[in-house]
Design brief:
Blueprint lengths: L1 H9 L15 H19 L18 H6 L16 H6 L17 H12 L20 H4 L24 H12 L10 H13 L5 H9 L5 H11 L1 H14 L20 H13 L4 H10 L16 H4 L8 H17 L18 H12 L1 E2 L6 E3 L8 H33 L2 H10 L2 H4 L2 H8 L18 H8 L3 H14 L8 H7 L6 H14 L9 H6 L8 H29 L13 E4 L5 E4 L10 H11 L12 H5 L3 H21 L5 E2 L4 E2 L6 E4 L7 E5 L21 H8 L7 H14 L20 H13 L4 H9 L12 H6 L12 E2 L2 H11 L35 H5 L18 H9 L1 H11 L2 H4 L4 H13 L5 H18 L7 H10 L2 H4 E2 L1
Antiparallel strand pairs: 1-6, 2-5, 3-4, 7-8, 9-10
Helix pairs in contact: 1-41, 2-5, 8-10, 10-33, 11-12, 13-30, 15-16, 17-29, 18-22, 18-26, 21-22, 26-27, 31-32, 31-33, 38-42
Length: about 1000
Amino acid sequence: MKTTIALLALIALPLLLRAEEPKPTPAQLEFFEKKIRPVLAGKCYECHSRESKVKGGLQVDTRTALLSGGDSGPALVLGQPEKSLLIKAISGKDKDLAMPPKGEKLTSAQVADFEAWIKMGAPDPRIATDKPVAKVLYDPEKVKSHWAYQPVTKPVVPAVKDKWVQTPLDAFVFAKLKENGLIPSPAVDKRTLIRRATYDLTGLPPTVDEVDEFLRDTSSNAFAKVIDRLLASPHYGERWGRHWLDVARYADTKGDRNNRGDPRYPYAWTYRDYVINAFNKDLPFDRFVTEQIAADRLPQGEDTSALAALGFLTVGKRFMGNANDVIDDRIDVVTQGFLGLTAACARCHDHKFDPIPIKDYYSLHGIFASSFEPENLPTLVDNKNNKNSPEYKDYLAQIAAVEGELQRYIETESTKALAPQRAKVGEYLLAIWENRQQFKDAPAAKAARAAKPPTAGKLPKGPLPPQNFVALAREKGLDPALLANWGAKLRENAGALHPVFTPFFAFGQLPAEDFAAKAKELAVVIAANKAAARPVNPILAKAFAGAEPRSMKDVAAIYSTVFKEVDEAWQAVLKDGVDKQPKGKMAKEAKAAKTKKGISNEPIIQVAAIPAGLPNKDQEALRQLIHGENSAMQVSERELPRLLGLAGNQFQSRVQAIRNKIVTVDSTHAAAPIRAMAMNDLAAPRDSAVLFRGEPSNRGPVVPRQFLEVLSGEKRAPFKDGSGRLDLAKSIASRDNPLTARVIVNRVWQWHFGEGIVTSASDFGMRAEKPAHAELLDHLATWFMDNGWSLKKLHRQIMLSSVYQQGSAKNDAYAKKDPGNRLLWKQNLHRLDFEALRDTLLVVGGKLDHTLGGRPIDVTTAATTRRTLYGLVDRRELPELFRTFDFANPDMTSSQRYTTTVPQQALFMMNSTLVIEQAKNLAHRSELDKLSDSAEKVRQLYRLALQRPPSADELKLALEYVTKQSERTGGKTTMDAWEKFAQALLQTNELIYVN
């Protein structure tokens, strides 16, 4: 027992002490400023702030007040929105607490924002001494001198003479350390260095052979060779692609909380794979920027792979279809991700902290409002070149079957919905005529009224101006879409003689005071049907024979009767045709079947209508007006639920269920074409109006699509090329832009050191402090641009520096002088993120599947051995395992993962099936099975798990533990001593942390 305790003391689990409440991160504070404060100020302050007559004893204008609560108790339970009274109140779940007042209920999206805010600990910068917020909280004069807005210039490298200085980077750091009375930390040993470098560049531990090879290489460029090998590895793109996916708020689902529509993004993974490939081939970063904003506007040639880059814009949350929220998300990811600016904070008002007026926000809004996602996504990898393969034929057959099911269902429901409407043709015509005030003053109408009664040789034409069909339909109890169709049909045929509509126009122009007499004369003319230019349809002419209409209502009734009889004749023909069909015929591919472009953009089978039409050509001409392809009795699929009434919801659910089947086939079938989540520009781009307070009902001036003024200066001009996305991309990727190179260089530094030179990686605005190493940042930014915006060259430059190769040992004296290590007197110790930790367990167990790319999979089960990067990221149901290990929030752009220490992490390492299985796999790896000597087995276990041999004490304790454990159990336990020892190694801080 003592041996076991000693062993566990030596290879201890991470201590999980409850830390004091962490300081809010910049991203969390931004979430508060953007999502929470505006709602509190707009909906709650009037009744619940220091400036108001407080109701219910509750104030919401400070965090302290919310935690204290009011008469009903604390308003917040941190981390538990379901227990927080605030959520019960704003969601309406508790009618006694419900607020805001009736009629001002928060949207479900706003409630979701408050739930997310409470889950993250309710970060809130407000304190009791806060004064009312001024319009802006920055000095306009200081904008001109703010370091981040200054042009990027190449600083002079400090002249430092010290053997520690191996690169210009070292000179900048050493000079600043010396200035502050500090010296760098000693370099790490070679084992630590290769482990650090391998995790940094690939997210995986080095192999035993790789460590040994590096230790044997005594050349001066030994580490440079390691870096080059790692940069050439395909695993480099996987590791650094994952970093960028945090910024891009990557997910495989839309995140909507309702059940409408398919929640999946079937092709989001093509963006993920694009990012991996871009890093692996060292795509210049300026090109990387441009493709992610406007790949569709660039020349493509035969290689369309760059279209997948547009997933950067399209994989964001969908906000239940709220277009302005979707655009806001895109503005946010573009400006934070590339520029390090929180421009989305100017959606409702001028930015409080940065020189970004609301007009600039809506200039960007217009760019994305002028872009759209095509219904048929473009193909990236087209399997048509193998269209004769059984697999591809099977894919087409499955798609055809489901699309046929969808088409038949829509046609069936359309028939149900439109049947009663076809009996109202006369009512539709009458409604349009009764709204005749618009054509009383039309010149042609006046001329017609002044003319002599129509003769057999000539019937008058009639103009029909546009009308407000929604209001008219509501007044007459008709369908607005169909009424608009009939209005369009009449306008279309008002300028020429028409065999069906000309009589209607003629009756419609008769004077009301003498209608009956003149209508009787006109009916005789129509019945005679002797018009020279174009005769009246004989069936209609016959219907007017002997007719004496006394009003337009009577005329409309005749039209209704004619069309009703034609419809009945058609239904009889259809029924007769179906009855004569062999059983099952309509469900099969008939020779007479037509083809149609379906959702997959492939020809699909459309079951042909058995009869081609009515045999009588005059009846058929009338039938075409209510059943034909260009009939006025056609509505879009989205309008059918309205016509179906109570059955509308059932229709929508069934259609979506069938569509989901199509998406499943199209996104999972091995032979299905692979598609990009692309965007296109509208044919007629449009500028956006300012929406004050972000409310569509509170419109301001229309502003041109253009770049941010603070980054444009006098050169700013409206974007004219399409939507403006390409112009925007060029403005961002320009060498003259002071932010883009600085921001990405800082991100790369952060992902190497755990902390950026600028600590707020996505906020370089006025709130960002000037970094301690501003000159180093500018040196790296200019060097980066001078070297073709190459990220791989930048990695090499950073990693070959002495500052990167420092140790991370503590120094209490230095920590007092520079507690945040801003001066870089040491390297920062950092814990493996979730992906690297899980992948490490699989590598050490010898089970990691190194396959690159592909569709997402579930990585929460122990049986899955793909890299964690390829795991399905579900916004609605992000696995608890992901959350436990601080996975980036996919609902918004994430600049940095913040490390928490919670008991669940230790419990996972002790009890999870994944860890236990990989411990077994480690204990039984082939390298160990062939060893008979226990000491050698311990050494090899250490080398496989921790990339080093054990110390003498560690070896002794391990051997004692294994021996006594085996003696005690007799080797009959389900997990033998070696497996337990292997699991203990997997739980060490040394495995979980990178030194």
